[in-house]
Write a structure and sequence with these properties.
Two copies of one chain form a homodimer.
Chain A lengths: L4 H8 L1 H9 L6 H10 L6 H13 L3 E8 L2 E8 L1 H23 L1
Antiparallel strand pairs in A: 1-2
Chain A binds a DNA duplex (30 and 30 nucleotides) through α4 and β2.
Chain lengths: ~100, ~100
Amino acid sequence: MSYSIIHEFLLGFIKIHILYHADKEPVFGQAFKQELKRHGYDISYGTLYPIFHTLERQGYLHSKKENIKGKIRKYYTITTKGKRVLQQSRIKAKELFDELFEK
Amino acid sequence: MSYSIIHEFLLGFIKIHILYHADKEPVFGQAFKQELKRHGYDISYGTLYPIFHTLERQGYLHSKKENIKGKIRKYYTITTKGKRVLQQSRIKAKELFDELFEK
DNA sequence: GATTATAATATCGAAAATCGATATCGAAAA
DNA sequence: TTTTCGATATCGATTTTCGATATTATAATC
């Protein structure tokens, strides 16, 4: 079976969405997933965590482990390089969306 | 190597984009690809044609072969079922985009 | 009427992305 | 020192995407 059209759409801009959020405040995997879920969208941990790792490896995010009530969280915040990429990407994405679809 | 953030975004809504166009006028693979190219985006035939096939198999598009100056084109137009799906998808996609990203 | 040219579609094996399930981690509590 | 638990990490299987190559069908050329 294949993924739904909307799920594909969500996956397509998940990186932009992560950068967008990590620009506002530190984010971590579990909460990020749950926030999406609240909106009615589901993304697997097997997809999500590797995306965080990739964005960090590419230097767009940087992480810091924190001990919250005895549990370890890995908070990600955007880097300067990440901000540049986000800036470009969000402009392009908006353009593309309007241009090719919404008019 | 991985695909670029914008390319991923494009791929994410390629089906919606195809349905959207096929709702306005008949579309065929070659021209569709070239139109994207004019906008600066590239998608492989190995990706594009199977997507058309899938959308047809799912009953969202229906095709008709035509002889244009001795060359065969397969024109796709949207079906009633496709219109329903497009309607739902575009609303959801817009919502999702605004909600999770643009505000 | 056989051969060549060509616009367009179709397909294939390899690479990448995604999933869902399971494993691991690390500190606190028991 | 064992158990608990929120959270991250990873694994094999499935699905998607790519770029290259093959195929199709007609027109033009000889």
